[in-house]
Design goal:
This protein is an all-alpha fold and 130 residues long. It folds into 2 domains: 63 residues, no CATH class; 48 residues, no CATH class. The chain is 62% helix and 0% strand. The longest helix is centred in the middle third of the chain and has 18 residues. The termini are far apart.
């Protein structure tokens, strides 16, 4: 009798076919303080839990800010799919992500958020002006 695949045995069956969930390996690298390696590991098309992505992004060295930003944006997009009012965590993420962007990019991103999430009126209302 053959055993089911690893993903079916350990609860990561929601990972689309052809993609691999690297959450466990990324967590090990985090525990070992190997942030750059963890960041490289979680790059698309790899799938990783959003909490692990956030942890990696927050621990990358300042000179790796260009690598941290896409990770935080992935986490934000995941969070917004299931978000509902009052959006405290999501708005805190907007502030954190915005601080990592230059002024022009931040302004453009906030305008994009206002358009993309206009149905979430409370979220849009509480977005920062700049």
């Amino acid at each position: 009798m053959s055993r089911p695949p690893f993903s079916a045995r350990y609860g990561s069956a929601s990972v689309p076919t052809g993609e691999r969930d690297v959450s466990l390996r990324a967590e090990v690298l985090c525990v070992e303080g190997r942030w750059s390696e963890a960041c490289a590991l979680v790059q698309p098309p790899a799938v990783c839990r959003d909490g692990v992505l956030s942890r990696i992004a927050r621990h990358l060295a300042p000179e790796q800010g260009d690598q941290a930003l896409p990770l935080l944006l992935r986490v934000f997009n995941i969070a917004m799919r299931r978000a509902s009012s009052p959006y405290r965590d999501e708005l805190a993420m907007v502030e954190d992500i915005g601080r990592r962007m230059g002024p022009a990019r931040r302004t453009a991103w906030l305008a994009q958020l206002r358009t993309e999430f206009k149905a979430k009126r409370n979220f849009v209302r509480d977005l920062p002006d700049r």
